[in-house]
Write a structure and sequence with these properties.
Elements: H1 3-16, E1 22-24, H2 25-31, E2 40-46, H3 50-59, E3 64-70, E4 78-88, E5 91-100, H4 106-109, E6 111-116, E7 119-124, H5 126-133, H6 139-149
Parallel strand pairs: 2-5
Antiparallel strand pairs: 1-2, 3-4, 4-5, 6-7
Length: about 150
């Protein structure tokens, strides 16, 4: 299993069924030109579309439901995530569906379309990722912020 292939398969079914979403986390950092190792897929979806997103994720193999994970209190409008896993052979990939309070919250509204190969997917903007990660004290999030703020290429 390749994480990018799994992300593309997920985004395809979400878009086919008009489920609003935005990739975030380590994959989004990589998509914005700052590659780093990541072993999971993080996607923000509005609360109103979460059940449909869970069902669609199951249709592309993310059918092991691990359930709710509550996040530290924050002012972003994202307080919990639903974790699913795809297992194939001896490999697995985790998908975290982060529940946005609504599709109107500022963070979720700050999305951009990017190309991966011949496909277009929706990702949180660089500024939105920085804002989201700024609420964390994890070393990897602090390093992600530094990489995203570095404009030298």
């Amino acid at each position: 299993m390749e994480i990018v292939d799994e992300l593309l398969a997920l985004s395809k079914v979400l878009e086919r069924d008009h489920v609003p979403y935005a990739v975030c986390g380590g994959l989004a950092v990589t998509i914005h030109g700052r590659p780093r190792l990541t072993i999971d897929i993080n996607v923000v979806v509005p609360k109103s579309a979460l059940d449909q997103a869970i069902q669609l994720a199951g249709s592309v193999g993310f059918d092991m439901q691990e359930g709710w994970v509550y996040l530290p209190k924050n002012d972003l409008g994202i307080n919990r995530l639903f974790r699913l896993t795809k297992v194939e052979g001896g490999e697995f990939i985790t998908l975290d569906l982060l529940e946005a309070d609504s599709d109107a919250i500022r963070l979720f509204a700050d999305r951009v379309r990017v190309s991966i190969g011949d496909r277009q997917i929706t990702v949180l903007s660089r500024a939105a990722i920085i804002e989201m990660k700024s609420r964390s004290t994890r070393t990897k999030d602090i390093l992600d912020i530094e990489m995203l703020q570095d404009e030298t290429d």
